[in-house]
Amino acid sequence: MSCTKLLTTQAYIDDELDAAAALAAERHIETCAECAALRAEGLAIRKALREQASYHRAPEKLRAAVRQKIGDPVSSPSVAKGGFGALAKPGRSFFAGAGFGAALALAASLLIFVLGAPVRDEMANDVVAAHIRSLIGTHLVDVASNDHHTVKPWFAGHSDVSPPVGDFAKAGFTLVGGRVDYVDGRRAAVTVYRHGAHVMNVFAWKDLGDVKPGTRLRNGYRLLSWEKHGLFFCAVSDTGQSELVRLSQLIQSSDRATE
Amino acid sequence: MDERRRRFEALLLPHLDAAYNLARWLSRSAAEAEDVVQDAMLRALKSFDRFRGGDARPWLLAIVRNCHRTAAKRRASFVSVPIDEEIDGMTGDIPNAFRADTPDPESAATANAERRKLDTVLAALPEEFREVLILRELEEMSYREIAEATGVPMGTVMSRLARARALLKERWLQSEGASS
Ligand SMILES: [Zn+2]
Prior knowledge:
The complex is a heterodimer.
Chain A: H1 6-13, H2 19-31, H3 33-52, H4 60-69, H5 77-82, H6 100-109, H7 111-115, H8 121-136, E1 143-144, H9 148-158, E2 174-183, E3 186-195, E4 198-206, E5 214-218, E6 221-228, E7 231-237, H10 241-257
Chain B: H1 3-12, H2 16-27, H3 30-46, H4 56-76, H5 109-123, H6 127-138, H7 143-150, H8 154-179
């Protein structure tokens, strides 16, 4: 027999239910094997598509052609030079090699990770926009240094937030520098790292309100956010999720070391 | 640059990647996707006065989708290309359109193989199912936004999504069985 609440369970995994309905759905899933399986499979498919399926970003020549067609007099070739085209494709090693069964197991173990409702839409859009600006513009860093003894004090003098800064070159994450950027109308302290061909921006704010840690995907860029000691962090890059998680762990452990 | 065009660029250009990704997954061809997106951006500019504000992404994607349909119909009148063919027998033969644009030196060959396998399974799904999965999982759009982009009621979005997931799971398992 098929459960009559399958679409409700689906709406639950798609984050379409209000708090009361979500609670009721959770209770039902606990007692219904069919819905429990549907949830596990839905999350496995989500993880697989977000980690493995290709996200096709607009090629630079299309971007230029569109600008020209809609009559933008500045069909900026400078953007093409240092822009998206120069960046490597996302590495997706995190999930590589996993078939459906493995995906299912992994999704189950990462349930909270996947279901957590992280940074708001506008904020995710703004973080990605700021990340893209930093890649195509000249304003990647205000202070360029691979020495955290230089970058950390610079934040203290130029920002109301002084996030932990480390040089994790041995682990493959080279410190590039820091800058102050505006996201969602707020000043953020941004630490910039490089991992292979990928630039990774780590935004930090204080007093951000009711945002929850978690992951998001926007235009093929991945966001990972977390909270520590009253600071809220959001790392963004076109790397795979495993690289973001690794960097987040390094930053959090360096924070502990300097306390 | 006049004010209208400035507003258009500020609202629409951030969604160019989403437009191209959808066009590319619908047409399954890089060249066609570029034509479709250029066409869609021009149409969007022409009808920009009808845009009611808010998030421009569902609005733009609805136009991309219509442009794709028009282009596909025009093409179908010239050549007959089997669309939505069965996945069986396709696992060892990855269409050129789904090879990575540039080689990724960091990924092992197995990672690429896995990615291509899922891409192949997804590419072979019937268009309405492929589309709803792209919008929901790669664009993280809500049911309401998907309904707006695809021009169907929310109930249809929900049932399509359910069937799309079930079919993807089934074919993914099949492709694993075929390759092991
Ligand atoms: Zn049930």
